[in-house]
From TrEMBL:
Name of the protein in its database record: Creatininase family protein
Biological source species: Muricoccus nepalensis
UniProt keyword terms in alphabetical order: Hydrolase, Metal-binding, Zinc
Family to which the UniProt record says this protein belongs: Belongs to the creatininase superfamily.
Taxonomic superkingdom: Bacteria
Molecular functions (GO terms): hydrolase activity, acting on carbon-nitrogen (but not peptide) bonds, in linear amides; metal ion binding
GO terms classed as biological process: riboflavin biosynthetic process
Gene3D superfamilies the record matches: Creatininase
Cofactor (UniProt): Zn(2+)
Membrane found in the keyword field: no
Amino acid sequence: MRIAEMDWRAAEDWLARDDRCVLPLGSTEQHAGLSLSVDSILGERVAAEAAAPLGVPVFPVLAYGITPAFAAYPGTVSLRAGTYLAILTEILDGLYAQGFRRILLCNGHGGNAPGAAATQEFMGGHPDCRARWHDWWRAPRTLAAVHATDPVASHASWMENFPWTRLAGAPPPPAEGKPMTDLDRLRALPPDAVRAQLGDGNFGGLYQRPDEEMLQIWEVAVAETRDLLDNGWA
């Protein structure tokens, strides 16, 4: 259940019998013709759908992340790495103080990767807590489903194009695929040069695939995330 649909009494009742929760993590950044909130939308939605049958509370998504490379695209907002890690750690501190001891961080943005190390560091100071970092889109079963559908999958390509990340009234995406960009070169470029290399922002591949394929992948992602919530606390 989303925390937005609970009051403090419901949270207190939950903590009297269980200590799990989910913290979705996203970003606000360019995704070609898709929503600037793709990573936040997907991270929060997969967390909510996975947690719903279990009743596990899902906190609001942290909608800003580390994405300096896309700063030349209007609408992109990036936090400094130190700022992001400080915010993440303070949220974990708050959850721990409330009594949560099993925290699944459901991450939807690759640039947030430094948070995984911060999560490990947090557990070092809280040995009775299990905080698990989960990059939902590249978890083993989900990534296998993506590659089985189409091995050319990347940022702002078909793999992020779900019915709930598209924009109403937006022009349809190009039907043809885009050659993969040189990622090694991209990582060495400042923001203006990143935009010049990428153009619309898609790293490469088709822009859209049939919804039935996307929903099959989504079902795998939800099931894999739910399995972590149920059984991922060794």
